[in-house]
Amino acid sequence: MTRSRSALLTAAVRLVSERGTTAIPVTDLAEAANVSRQLIYLQFGDRDSLLVAAAADLVTRELLERSEEFQHDDMRPGVLATTRHFAEHRAFYRPMLTGSCAYAMSRTMNQVFRPFNERFLRERFAGLDEATAKDLARFAAAGAGEIVNDWVIDGPEPLDPHEAADRLMRLAAVFPGGYR
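-> structure tokens emitted (180 positions)
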């Protein structure tokens, strides 16, 4: 099961990137992963859920799981690693952010990045109660996500990860304590 799931996630990223759309028939996804259509429905429920899972897997596997940059007090390396990742995979993320699963995609990315925002905000607002800290992290994740989404969708070719990282760092500097 794990191998077929991995094959489906990989095929989804490849096909969306190649075709520039999320309107990919389930049959094509199944054939590219060498699995049955039924397996897609059993594991994911529908095509859009598979595509969103592929995006979450890609960002987690290629960015978050192996990102030493997120372990430092200086948040710029992590922000730059993030913008580089989205620039490198723009051919995948752009259709994901404009296609049939755009809402689910944005919501999932906000959930993926929320713990990093929460850690940053807890450091700057040490006295926050649990509920306020979580709400502020949601607010920050959605705002940063909107900036990254706009940049991926409408930014110039090629995307400049340093420019996007600078924008995000300027916003982080507004919080008490700025950024290190």
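The two ends are 44 Å apart (CA to CA).
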